[in-house]
Amino acid sequence: MLTPPSTPARAKLDDQFPSRRSLDASHSRVQELHFTPDLSQAQLLGEGVWSKVYSSPALPSRQSESGRPLTPPSTPHRSTFGSSEQYAIKTATRSDATGVFQAEAQILTHIQTYESSSDYVVPFLGLCTGTPTPSLLFQRADFGTLESLLESSSNLPSSSTLDLFLHVLQRLTHGLYFLHNTANTIHADIKPANILLSSSYDSLPTARYADFSTSFVADTTPSSHSGGGTYSFMAPEQLSRDADLSIPTFSSDIYALGITLLSFLCGGNPFESLLNNGFRLREAVKMGDAMSWAMQEPAFEARVEQLQKEWQRRRGEGNILSLVACALRKKREDRVDAGAWCRKVDALVGKLSKVESVGLGIRC
Ligand SMILES: Nc1ncnc2c1ncn2[C@@H]1O[C@H](COP(=O)(O)OP(=O)(O)OP(=O)(O)O)[C@@H](O)[C@H]1O
Ligand SMILES: [Mg+2]
Questions:
Q1: How far is the C-alpha of 7 from the C-alpha of 20, rounded, in Å?
Q2: pLDDT 10s digits, 101-131
Q3: Cα(120)–Cα(112) distance, rounded to whole angstroms?
Q4: Cβ–Cβ under 8 Å, residues 205 and 198
Q5: Which atom of ligand 1 is least distant from the CA of 142?
Q6: Which of 139, 162, 190 is the last residue of a domain?
Q7: 167 and 131 share a domain?
Q8: What residue numbers bound the domain in which 115 lies?
Q9: Based on the structure, what is the number of domains in the chain?
Q10: Considering the entire predicted model, what is its pTM?
Q11: Where is the Protein kinase domain (predicted)?
Q12: Which of 94, 153, 178, 211 has its CA 20 to 30 A from that of 100?
């Protein structure tokens, strides 16, 4: 992960023939699974606007009806696909979710045509048609969401919090590079609840992107439900009067990841004090100065100060906030792109003096 983002052969081909990418998105065949899961005893893992997501134990038969084995799309990692394999099934809670789920299955199928997708995106196994409305079957991420980790990390020593932050920062910046530059995909709803964590035998938990319900291939028309993101993770231009600027872009993804990572540094949403007031929240987001808002919260300022001390103890250069500030510029033309962000992060993290990594001893 300390190497600069790689450019797989597939991506090089796509650079020569840009039209291939959108063709992939429209023609990749979604894997259909014809089984009916019993969710009566299933554990609820989480829910969102469109769905309830349940844990589904290893399936009785590990074959879909089409005869294709239920394996993740590419060579699994020992840490994430162990013997006690579990699935997560995303079921619709709204009648109008069918089209949204089909679109999510399509974009995930497109993303999974690229080799390194399982490093950065929670593996998708197929669209279940045996449920009253179609459901989506995923590999289960067993360590909760970045949102839950953020909450539980408040009791950790700052050394462990910094280890976690840097680990997640590198994975997510490289993951965004993969989505943007390899899969040509705009996620459009990056936030801590849409980043899932999987435990690992020998390392810190692995963070990967989930919830592609509003995602689309760049240069194609976003689906009608795109753009309904969560205000506090939206880029300032998305709230302007100009309707064209509200459409998610690579640059608004960069901003949303910047706010997500700033939330980790602060231990909470930078706009915490405004979350109950939609009007003031929108005005604050439009001002494009999330870091100043965050530093007005004494608990956030104190946590960032502690992390800064730990950063300096490891001989980190400059202010730790500079790792995210480049993504949080108000004007989108001033923001970094994913490649430049990866290079900046890798250079700064690569210079840190090594410390013994210790177990976290936490559960989400
Ligand atoms: N593969 C998974 N493993 C474990 N938990 C999961 C998995 N997929 C989803 N979840 C849980 O379910 C929640 C909702 O899933 P998801 O974000 O995909 O749904 P949604 O309805 O599209 O959400 P949103 O309101 O953000 O649009 C997640 O925040 C997470 O807590
Ligand atoms: Mg979600």
A1: 16
A2: 999 999 999 999 999 999 999 999 999 987 7
A3: 10
A4: yes
A5: 4
A6: 139
A7: no
A8: 23-139
A9: 2
A10: 0.87
A11: 39-349
A12: 178
